[in-house]
Every structure is written in structure tokens, then in C-alpha cells.
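Revision sheet: C-alpha cells.
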Amino acid sequence: MMQNEQWSSKIGFILASAGSAIGLGAIWKLPYVTGNSGGGAFILLFLIFSLLIGFPLLLGEFIVGRSTGKEAISAYKTIAPKSRWHWIGYIGVFTCFLLLSFYSVIGGWIIKYLFASVTGGMPAEADGYVAFFNQSVGNPLEVIIFQAIFLIITIVVVARGVQQGIEQISKIMMPALFLLFIVLIVRSLTLEGAMAGVTFFLKPDFSSLTSESVLYAMGQSFFSLSVGVSVMVTYSSYLSKKESLLQPALSIVAMNLFISILAGLAIFPAVFSLGYEPEGGPGLLFIVLPSVFDQIVFGKVFLLLFLSLFLFATLTSAFSMLEIVVAALMSNKGKGRGRMAWLIGAAIFLVGIPSALSFSTLSEISIFGKSIFDSADFLVSNILMPIGALLISIFVSYKMKKDLLRSELIQGKKSLNLIFTVWFFLMRYVVPLVIIIVFLDAVGLI
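Predicted:
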């Protein structure tokens, strides 16, 4: 049975899908992971993985979803009935559930900063942001309250559905985020000593790369494009059969890479100019960007605007994570969208509490040398997403009929046959091989 939900336009689909990708992956996580992984060399690997692995996988998920018109679990069941391939969908649903549990913690941090900006609670001096961040994430009650607020907003939008909820808000907020980033970059690049940050961000230094850095780069390409978890299977199931898949996929990858570069150019020149360490970790964005705005005329106003847009960019990613779980359980259990969104959201909130408290009450708890928050992040980005991506690449290139793949991708346009051939080769041979090699290297087997 086809789903009732559908995007009202291709641009709505592109912006919502890009919003799923362009959130914390590009704006929050990429800068600090880059800082911890060698700068320009890491960025180069990230770009390569995004084009050779992320883009083909994105198209693969689009084909699975659009060809069946069903959410993740049901889509795999439809293509491969009486098999276990639908477990790819279950892995994706579980990964999104876990991802949103700690993702909502950072969303709560943004709301905390937004609240402080409105009420005048931000530090008066630039050197006060380190202490302010530590105080913000170290207050157990506050982080849980703001995490809950973030999830409530997410639930309300997803409960409204695709067109009235996810699509409407994405059309407004994503373009606005691009424009503000341009303003921020101009100011960041004009700070004294800014070029040292540009050099760090864009000039590759391969001597600083490790096998863990390579694994992180691959994981980041999955995280920032929302592939490997079947989110795009669900999103593309709402797309009309008349629409091209190639153009939206190219647009999403290009927008994601563009905003990733913009985020780096906004942050690293300021990091070096203001004397911060590029290995600043998860708090890098929350410490550096407010300091940059302090250097701008009407900086407090710009900070308030940026935090508002950053919150919406973060929310558009959260919508996709909650949507895949809601869509899957609605299909399996026949429950209403609104009720299911609230039930799942509540469960995600409870599971996310340990991550929220890993900077305060539970800070002494370590899992393989990582905090609860970092362990959840590592499990999702570097284990579950790559496993999901590997299984999806094998499923699409070996289990699905080649004629169906060709038909969905080129839609009768013979001029796209070469693109299909290259894409199919990447999906069948390059994507699985690269994922396997990086994993083997990371665990010391090669």
C-alpha cells in the first residue's frame, strides 16, 4: 500500500532532505572532528568519501524508497519478501532512535544559548564563553529540561505530517541559514591572524592522519548526508514518480559540502585569531562563534539570529530521525501519527538522559575510555552507520534488479546511461570495498 504522505514539490523534498543532512553534522560536528583529525587532510578525505560513497548511497536509498513508495522496513520487505534483508530497515530505525537521543542533547544546548541571548544571560566578555559553556552542560536539571524542549518541538512538527510540518519549515529556514553563514564568514576572515585558520582547514597535512581519522572521515560522510540509516528511503518514498532522483541527490550533496566548507571557514579563522585550540571538542562551536559575534557591530543581534537559524537547521535533521521511526511503527502497528510521535519522542528522551548527564552527574562513567555521550556518538557514526551503508550497497547492487535500478535512475533518458554505469560500479565494488578496508584497518587487521 502506498503511503498517503507526499512532498508538495521537488524543492520541498530537496530542502527537507538537505535539512536532514545539514544540521549538526555539517555545522557542529565537522569543525570539531576536523580539529581533532588534522585539518585539511581530514577535509579532503571527507570530500572524497562524500562523493565516492555518500553520493552513490544517497541515490541507492532514493531508489529503494521511491520505487516502493514505502518507509524503510516495508520497502526492503517489498523488494525482498521472505528474506532477512528488511533488517536493514530495523538497523536504520534503531540507529535514528539512538542518534536522536544524544542529538537532542546538543539541540538543548542551542536552546539554552538562545534563551540566554534573549534574557541577557550571555557573558559580557569574550573570555567568559568557556566557563559559560561548561556551566551550561554541567547543570543536570537544565540540560534535561532543554533537551525535553527540543524534543517537544520535534514531536509537534513531525506529528503534523510531511507537507504541513517538515516541508514548510525547511523551505524558510535552510536558505536563511546560508545567507547568515556568508555574513559570518566575511567577519571571521577579516579578523587578525585569520589566514592561519584557513591554512589549517584547507591545506592537507597527511602526516597527522591516523586510521581512526580515516574512519571518522568516512563516518562523517554518512552522518552529514544522513545515509546508512535509511532516512532517505523514507523521505524518497514521499516523492512523486515523475521527479528525477539524480538532480535532488546532486543538489543535496552539493549543498551539504558547501555548508560544511562554510562552517569551517566561519569557525577556524576565528579559532586561530582568538587563540583557541582547534581540538576544542564538542564545545568548539558554542565557545568560538559567540566570540566571533562579539567582534561584530550589533553582534548580540547577529548571535540571536544565528542561534535561531542554527536551531532550525538542527531541528530539520531531528525531524528526519523521528520521522523514520514514526513511519516504520505506524506501518507496523497501525497507530496514528500524532500518538506515535509522542510515544516515540518520550522514549527517545528517556534513553538520552544518560548522554545529557555525561558532562555532569555521570561524567565519571567511561565506556572504553569514552563518556556516555561520546560512546553513543561513536557507536552511531563509526559502527552502525557504516554497517548500514555496507548492507544497503550490497542490497541495492546485488539484490535489486538492474533494470529497475536503471529505470528509476535514468527515467528513459539514454544520455544518463553512463552515469548509471558509473554509479552501479561504485555501489557494487567501490563502496563495499572501501567500507570493509577502513574497518579492517581501524581494528588493526591490515
